Amino acid sequence: MKLTINMRFSKKALLLASLISAYSHYVLAEIEPYSCRNGHFPSYQDMKLGFVRESVSDRSYFHDDDTGCPYEDTCKENAYIVPGDEVLVSKTQDGWSCVWYQGANRGFVGWMKSENLGLKLYEDNYSLSDWVGDWRFIGTDTYLKITQAQQAELNVSGEAYWSNGRGLTNLGSVDETGIPNGRNLEVKSGDEIYDCKVHLRLLQEYLVVYDNKSCGGMNVSFDGVYLKKTN
Predict the structure, then answer these.
(1) For residues 224 and 207, what is the distance between their CA atoms, to the nearest angstrom?
(2) Does the bond joining 42 to the residue before it have cis omega, within 30 degrees of 0?
(3) Which residues contact 89 (CB under 8 A, 6 or more apart)?
(4) Mean of the per-residue pLDDT values for the chain?
(5) Closest of 94, 93, 97 to residue 51, by C-alpha
(6) Residue 10: exposed, middle, or buried by beta-carbon count in 10 A (0-12, 13-18, 19+)?
(7) Could you give the 3-state DSSP secondary structure of residue 66?
(8) How many CB atoms neighbour CB 94 within 10 A?
(9) Helix or strand or coil: residue 140?
(10) Of 168, 167, 146, whose CA–CA distance to 222 is shortest?
């Protein structure tokens, strides 16, 4: 009797696993091609510095990343940027680019027509002093402070916050050292299971940060694009 029950359970478990796997592949197939949103942007691997070209329309509109986007007319958002505005450009596909624009009080992320954009040429070599400073994720209380430790090492410390808007606030923090490799720097703490890893990329005056979601309370993350505090 036990063997029969176990066999049935195993078959059900295998069937459930197969369904979950199939569903996961289906969801990924639906989401991956058009995903371009604030929360995901910092973790996109390909990142360049760009600008809105002068020869295009006075307004370059952001387009949403919902189903069927950015191709449908309904994907067009109200937010737009103008020629000369600087952007971070990540993945591109079918004539569209996923971009980040840093506004005065918050960042804007969405699809934009690639023909409206150009890429900036800049020196990609950074010294330790380029990293050092107080970095702020504009529009949030999350921050990072980078100081020179010893020799080629940099210390990265800071706090990240998440609030549900109803009085509950979760906190995360990091305070570790690492050695930059070109425009990349990774710091980590903790053990192999519950370790906090924060990856930082420097693109001129922008610091693009993402972590492994193990640096604090639920929903807390350092993910974002940071600007160096000037005063």
Answers:
(1) 8
(2) no
(3) 47, 48, 49, 50, 97, 98, 99, 117, 119
(4) 84
(5) 97
(6) exposed
(7) coil
(8) 10
(9) coil
(10) 146
Q: Cα angle vertex 111, ends 220, 143, to 5°?
A: 30
Per-residue pLDDT tens for 178-219? 999 999 999 998 766 668 999 999 999 999 999 999 999 889
**How many residues are present in the chain?**
231
Model confidence band, residue 117 (pLDDT cutoffs 50, 70, 90): very high
Strands 48-52 and 86-93: antiparallel
Give the model confidence (pLDDT) of 91-104 as tens digits.
998 999 999 999 99
**Considering only CA atoms, which of 164, 61, 193, 170 is closest in space to residue 116?**
61
- Which two three-digit tokens encode residue 173? 């923090």
Record the pTM: 0.82
Residue reference for tokens 């604030």:
38
Task: Please report the pLDDT score of residue 201 as a whole number.
Answer: 96
Q: Quick one: which H or E segment has residue 125? A: none
For residues 63-78, average pLDDT = 91
Which helix (H) or strand (E) is 199 found in, with range? strand 196-203
- The rounded distance, in Å, linking the Cα atoms of 162 and 173 is 12
Q: Measure CA of the first residue to CA of the last residue in the chain; give whole Å.
A: 74
How far apart are alpha carbons 138 and 225 in whole angstroms?
A: 8
